[in-house]
Here is the input.
Amino acid sequence: MQLPQQQAIAQNLMQRLEKGHQWLREAPPVLQRAFQHLYLPGLVHYFRLEIKHNPVVFNTLTYDLLTQIRGGVSQTNEELQPIRTRLDEGVDTFIASCQGLEEQFNQFLNTLKGTPPVPADFATFIEEKPQEFFGREFVFEAIQQFCQNQANGYFIVEREFNT
Here is the structure.
């Protein structure tokens, strides 16, 4: 009884022989079955022994396999080359589009640093009202510190009545 691996090898070998030999394709089914079930298993067994014990056969098969693999790899490299080229072009385009971006970003940060932390419509109100107060610098310092340290929120000013 053949192992599954030997059966697969025999089947593959039979298909290759049928492609290359017209007499085998045109042979009566009885002859095809005899060839496939009697001759091929012995041939596969003999071939496996030759590979195992004959370094010339082993080296030849190894060379053939490596040549096939190398051919497949070079074909794959040829197919991948246009993709690599397009990727390189895309990366170059992206890098070119980023030129000057750092400078624009730094300008934006500098603009933000000069922007008061309060909405623009309250800025005028905040600037005008403190001018009417005297001697309460600590209140204005607390408000200024709150605005610098908080991105949003409420600042509640409480005072006693009539002060």
Notes: The mean pLDDT is 76. Residues 43 and 68 are 23 Å apart (CA to CA). Residues 55-97 form the longest helix (43 residues). The chain is about 75% helix and 0% strand.
